[in-house]
Design goal:
This protein has 9 helices and 10 strands. The protein has 267 residues and is of the alpha+beta class. The chain has 2 domains: 76 residues, Phosphorylase Kinase, domain 1; 170 residues, Aminoglycoside 3'-phosphotransferase, Chain: A, domain 2, CATH 3.90.1200. A 5-stranded antiparallel β-sheet has the order 1-2-3-6-5, covered by helices on one side. A 3-stranded mixed β-sheet has the order 4-9-8, with helices on one face. The longest helix has 20 residues. The two termini are 35 Å apart.
Length: 267
């Protein structure tokens, strides 16, 4: 990912003086200047999200509020900005952390349940959007040999998960915590899916990348079907990245992790 920093014209457009410093985490493309976080790309999607969040009342969570330029635009020279929110990543080795992340996600999803589906979601062609459509049967996918066996085991489990709405489908590393304050939901990745799908992604990540035990499923009350579909989503995303030539992922290691998570589901 590029580490190009926002030009001075962007900082000034949002009413901030330099210098900007790189922000760790995420896709490695965000910068901080003043009390704002700057991120490149996502023009139309960010513009829609910024307008939508203006109609959302946080209850049980905080949100990284989108900021407009001095001219009233949501994007400046391809960069967007949100307000810096206080908080840090939690201890992912603690069972309570996953309960708290899911609770924040559920509060967020209740607050955005009234939002309509934006047509621009249909125009997304990034790796994640293509992978998401594949695991919901909206496009074909051929899993790489390393993933094929695990994918076959998982594909029998997905089932309808409820009514779709706008969801944040990448909550795992995008909920920050600060003492005495509600959790902060940041870097919203919007999809039009049932909230349980977003919860399944959190549990799938916990099992694959944070050594969570199989007992997590019972503790957080998330269905096997939702986690199975989420595991397919994560595998399909790697599929898309590798197919594009943009990633040299350790496919054997990822396949091993997905296989262990699948076994934890009893599949």
């Amino acid at each position: 990912m590029s580490r190009d920093q926002p030009p001075l014209a962007v900082l000034h457009g949002f009413g901030v003086d330099g210098p900007a410093r790189p922000l760790d985490g995420g896709q490695g493309t965000s910068w901080v200047a003043g009390n704002l976080v700057f991120k490149p790309g996502d023009g139309p999607l960010h513009e829609w999200l910024a307008g939508a969040l203006a109609d959302v009342t946080p209850d049980g969570f905080r949100v990284a509020e989108p900021v407009c330029t001095r001219e009233g635009a949501w994007v400046c020279h391809g960069w967007s900005a949100t307000r810096w929110v206080e908080g840090s990543e939690p201890d992912h080795s603690a069972m309570s952390t996953w309960q708290e992340i899911l609770a924040a996600g559920r509060a967020f999803h209740r607050a955005v349940a009234h939002l309509g589906r934006p047509d621009l979601l249909d125009r997304r062609q990034d790796w994640w959007a293509r992978a998401d459509r594949a695991v919901w049967g909206e496009r074909d996918i051929r899993f790489r040999p390393e993933f094929a066996a695990v994918a076959r085991r998982l594909q029998d489990a997905p089932e309808p998960l409820g009514r779709p709405q706008i969801v944040h489908a990448d909550l795992t590393n995008n909920v920050l915590f600060a003492p005495g304050r509600a959790p902060a939901v940041i870097d919203i990745s919007p999809y039009w899916r049932p909230p349980e799908y977003a919860e399944g992604v959190v549990v799938a990540d916990a099992l694959c990348w944070h050594s969570a035990s199989a007992s997590l499923l019972e503790t957080v009350d998330v269905s096997v079907a939702s986690v199975a579909r989420a595991l397919l989503f994560r595998m399909a995303t790697t599929n898309e990245r590798v197919a594009s030539g943009a990633d040299r992922a350790d496919l054997k290691d990822e396949a091993r992790r997905y296989a262990l998570a699948t076994a934890a589901l009893g599949l």
